[in-house]
Amino acid sequence: MDAGRRISYILSDKTSKQKKTKNISYIEFERNNEQNIMVSLSGHILGADFPEEFKDWVKSDLDKLIDSNIIYKVTNQRAYSALKSFSGIDNIIIATDYDREGELIGVEALKFIEPGYTNIRRAKFSALTSQEVKDAFDNLLDVNYGLADSAKAREEIDLLWGAVLTRFFSVTSNRLWKDFISVGRVQTPTLALIVEREEEITSFVPEKYFVINVTFNKGIDFQGVYEKNIKDEDEANKIFNAINGNDGIVKSYKNEKKEVYKPPPFSTTDFLREASRIGVTPSNAMKIAEKLYMSGLISYPRTDNTVYQRSIPLKSIAKKFEGTEFDNEAKMVLGQEKIYPSRGKVETTDHPPIYPVSYPKKALTGAYKNIYELIVRRFLATLYKNAVIEKSDADIDIKGYNFKSSGEKIIDNGWFDIYKYRKLREYKLPELVIGETVKGKKWNMEEKYTEPPKRYDVASLLKLMESLNLGTKSTRHDIIQKLNDRNFATGNPLRPTPLGIGFIKSITTIDSDIAKPDMTAELEKEMDKIAENQKKLDDVVNDSRNMLHSALKGFRGNKEEIKETITSYANKGDSIGTCPLDGGEISLIKFRNFSKIKCSTEGCKINFNLNATGLVQMTDKRCDVCSLPIIKIIRKGQSPEYRCVDPNCEYNRKKLSIGKCPSDGGDLIIRQSRYGKRFLGCSNYPKCTVTYPLPQKGVIMPTGEICRYCGAPLLIMVNGKRKWKFCPNMKCEYNRKDKVEKSESENK
DNA sequence: GCAAGGTC
C-alpha cells in the first residue's frame, strides 16, 4: 500500500475508497463527518529546465545560459491532472514527507489546485502509524515556504552547474550526444574519489617490514607479537636472535568485561551494506525492499533515520514473529523484563528506520526471503541485549623486548544469537600472573610488505558518500550506476575507466568546488539560511551564478589542455594484448554504445569497431579465413566467444549462422531489431526478406537438422534447466505434431 | 541531450 492510501485508510478508520476515472486517480474518505479527497503525488510534479532557445549545445552561449531564467515543466502528469480536476475545495492539507524535498513537492502541488482559498495547512508525521498520522491531522502546522525555497535553490543550482559544465566539457572535448561528458555536484566528486583511490594504488610503492611473533605455552598455546613492525632488516635480525629460544616473563596482565553493542536500527545505507554482505547488490536490494514495502511487509525503505520513534509499537511487532521461523528469536526478545531498543547517531523526522511491519502470508523465496530475514533479524537484534566478552591483555618480556598477547572470551552471546550474519570469535589466553615465566615454544620472524589501499566497492563507496553528505538515501546507488552507464567507472570493486581518469584530471586543472564534496557542504549552509529566512532564494541562486561565471572563465582558460587530456586518455583505451602482426599494443577504446579495437602502430590493419559487451582479450590464434587475429569475449556465466577481429569477416558470419534459409540458401543469422528484439534473418537481406521470430530469453543452438514440414532449420532452445527442440516457423506443424509425439514417447 | 531529487 502506498503512503497516500495508508494515510486515508488510517484517517477514515478503514473506510477510504479508491476512485478512478479515465485519467484521474484519487481516494475519497470521510473523517469527522467531513468529505475528504486524497491525491497521491509520488515525487516531484515539476522539473527545472531552460527555455527552448538554448536547445543547441554547440551554438548556445554558456554565459547567457547561466543568466537565463529557469522554467518549470510538469514531469508528473498523473499528479498534475488529478490536482487540476477538483473545484470547490475548502481546505488543503499537505501531507508529504516531512523534509526539505517533501515541503517543495507540497508547494508544487498548490500551484495546480484551483486558487482562491486561504486555508492551507501542513501535517507533520514521521511514521505511518495510526497514532502519528491521527495526531498530525489533529495538530496541523503552517506550510514552511522557506524550507520549500531551500530545496528549489538546490534544484536550480544543480541544473545550472550541471548543464553549463556538462555542455562545456562535452563541446570542448567534442564528445556529443551519447558520448557526452556528464558533470554534476554529486557525481563528479564521487568519480574523483574513485580516481584518487586508483592513483594511490598505481603510485603505491610496497615497503618491506618484519613481524616477530612467539608461541608461548601455559597449559594452552597462545601468541605474542612483538610490539612494533620493524622496517630495518638488521634490526629485525638482532631482535630475533636475542629472543629466539627464550622464555618470557609476564610484565602486565589485566582482564575486564566489555559489552559488544548491538547494532543500530537500519538506515538505507546500512541496509544496503549488509545486503551486499549476504551477496545482494545495492540496486537489487533496493528493488526487493521496494517490493516488500509495497506488499506491506516492511516500512518505507528510503530513510536516514536510525532511531525508532516512540509511536512504533516495537513489542507488538516482535509478537508477530511468534510461531514463525523466528519464534525463538521473538521469544528471546519478548522474554526480557524491559525492551531497550538501540539508537543510532542519526535521527531524522521524515521516516522511521527500516523495520518489518508484518509477516508474509505466502512464504517468500530466494533473495526476497533473504532480504526479509535480514530486516527481521536486524529489527529483533536491535531490541535484544548487548553481548558481553571478557577481554584480556598481557605484556610479556623476552630479553628486554616487549611482546603483546590478548584474548577474548564470550560471556554472553547476546544479540549475536539473533543476528546470525556476524559472529563473535574467541581468542584464547590463559590466566596469567605478573612476574611468572611462560614457556616459549616457537619463535618466528616473517617478512611482509605494506599493501596499497583497497579499491572502493559499492558498499564502501555508499558509506563514504553518506559520510561526505554526497547524494541522499534515495539517489546514492543511482549515482554509482550513472558513473557506470556513462563509461566513467566500471566493475565492483570500482575502477575508473581511462575516460573517467582523463576527465577528472582535466576538471582539476583549476581549483573548482565542483569536483569536491565541499560544494555540497557550502550549498547546505546556504539552504539552511533560506530555510531560516536569513537569505532569499534568488540571492543564493544569483551568488551561485556568479561563482559559475568565474569557474567557467577558469575552465575556458585551460580549454586546450582540457581537450588534450580528455581525448588522449579516452583514445588510449585499455591495453588488451600485443599485435600478432607487428608487435604493437592493441587497445580497446570504449564508447557508450560500442568499442574500438586499435593497434598502436601507424597504418596497422587492426582498427575495427566491436559490438560486444563483456571482457575482451587478444588470443594467439589467427582466423582461418583472413588470417587476422581472433579475439576472445568473456561474459559472466557463459562459455567464451571467439571472433575474428574484423567484424565483416566471413568467419564471424559463418559462426553466427544457425542454418540455411529455405528460400535462397543464404545464412540465417540471429539479428537484433530496432527495438532490441532478436529474430532470425537471411544474410541476403534486403534481397531476401525471410525472417523468423525467436524466443527473447535463453540460448539458441543449431541442430543441423531441417524441418520436414517447412524446410527451416530446427533449433534447440536452452532456458535454465529446460531444453527443447523447435521449428522457428511458428505456424509450422512440427511444433504441434512432432513435439507432442516426442513428449509422449518420453512418458512411456 | 545537460543535474539531482522525488518515486508505483
UniProtKB/TrEMBL annotation:
<dbReference type="Pfam" id="PF01131">
    <property type="entry name" value="Topoisom_bac"/>
</dbReference>
<comment type="function">
    <text>Releases the supercoiling and torsional tension of DNA, which is introduced during the DNA replication and transcription, by transiently cleaving and rejoining one strand of the DNA duplex. Introduces a single-strand break via transesterification at a target site in duplex DNA. The scissile phosphodiester is attacked by the catalytic tyrosine of the enzyme, resulting in the formation of a DNA-(5'-phosphotyrosyl)-enzyme intermediate and the expulsion of a 3'-OH DNA strand. The free DNA strand then undergoes passage around the unbroken strand, thus removing DNA supercoils.</text>
</comment>
<dbReference type="Pfam" id="PF01751">
    <property type="entry name" value="Toprim"/>
</dbReference>
<dbReference type="GO" id="GO:0003917">
    <property type="term" value="F:DNA topoisomerase type I (single strand cut, ATP-independent) activity"/>
</dbReference>
<dbReference type="GO" id="GO:0008270">
    <property type="term" value="F:zinc ion binding"/>
</dbReference>
<keyword id="KW-0677">Repeat</keyword>
<dbReference type="InterPro" id="IPR023405">
    <property type="entry name" value="Topo_IA_core_domain"/>
</dbReference>
<dbReference type="GO" id="GO:0006281">
    <property type="term" value="P:DNA repair"/>
</dbReference>
<dbReference type="InterPro" id="IPR013824">
    <property type="entry name" value="Topo_IA_cen_sub1"/>
</dbReference>
<keyword id="KW-0413">Isomerase</keyword>
<dbReference type="InterPro" id="IPR000380">
    <property type="entry name" value="Topo_IA"/>
</dbReference>
<keyword id="KW-0479">Metal-binding</keyword>
<dbReference type="InterPro" id="IPR003601">
    <property type="entry name" value="Topo_IA_2"/>
</dbReference>
<dbReference type="InterPro" id="IPR013497">
    <property type="entry name" value="Topo_IA_cen"/>
</dbReference>
<comment type="subunit">
    <text>Monomer.</text>
</comment>
<comment type="similarity">
    <text>Belongs to the type IA topoisomerase family.</text>
</comment>
<feature type="region of interest" description="Interaction with DNA">
    <location>
        <begin position="182"/>
        <end position="187"/>
    </location>
</feature>
<feature type="site" description="Interaction with DNA">
    <location>
        <position position="154"/>
    </location>
</feature>
<feature type="site" description="Interaction with DNA">
    <location>
        <position position="486"/>
    </location>
</feature>
<dbReference type="InterPro" id="IPR023406">
    <property type="entry name" value="Topo_IA_AS"/>
</dbReference>
<dbReference type="Pfam" id="PF01396">
    <property type="entry name" value="Zn_ribbon_Top1"/>
</dbReference>
<keyword id="KW-0460">Magnesium</keyword>
<dbReference type="GO" id="GO:0003677">
    <property type="term" value="F:DNA binding"/>
</dbReference>
<keyword id="KW-0863">Zinc-finger</keyword>
<dbReference type="InterPro" id="IPR013498">
    <property type="entry name" value="Topo_IA_Znf"/>
</dbReference>
<feature type="domain" description="Toprim">
    <location>
        <begin position="1"/>
        <end position="128"/>
    </location>
</feature>
<dbReference type="InterPro" id="IPR003602">
    <property type="entry name" value="Topo_IA_DNA-bd_dom"/>
</dbReference>
<feature type="active site" description="O-(5'-phospho-DNA)-tyrosine intermediate">
    <location>
        <position position="300"/>
    </location>
</feature>
<feature type="domain" description="Topo IA-type catalytic">
    <location>
        <begin position="144"/>
        <end position="552"/>
    </location>
</feature>
<dbReference type="InterPro" id="IPR013826">
    <property type="entry name" value="Topo_IA_cen_sub3"/>
</dbReference>
<keyword id="KW-0862">Zinc</keyword>
<dbReference type="InterPro" id="IPR028612">
    <property type="entry name" value="Topoisom_1_IA"/>
</dbReference>
<dbReference type="InterPro" id="IPR006171">
    <property type="entry name" value="TOPRIM_dom"/>
</dbReference>
<feature type="site" description="Interaction with DNA">
    <location>
        <position position="302"/>
    </location>
</feature>
<dbReference type="InterPro" id="IPR013825">
    <property type="entry name" value="Topo_IA_cen_sub2"/>
</dbReference>
<feature type="site" description="Interaction with DNA">
    <location>
        <position position="158"/>
    </location>
</feature>
<protein>
    <recommendedName>
        <fullName>DNA topoisomerase 1</fullName>
        <ecNumber>5.6.2.1</ecNumber>
    </recommendedName>
</protein>
<dbReference type="InterPro" id="IPR034144">
    <property type="entry name" value="TOPRIM_TopoIII"/>
</dbReference>
<dbReference type="GO" id="GO:0005694">
    <property type="term" value="C:chromosome"/>
</dbReference>
<dbReference type="GO" id="GO:0006265">
    <property type="term" value="P:DNA topological change"/>
</dbReference>
<dbReference type="GO" id="GO:0006310">
    <property type="term" value="P:DNA recombination"/>
</dbReference>
<feature type="site" description="Interaction with DNA">
    <location>
        <position position="44"/>
    </location>
</feature>
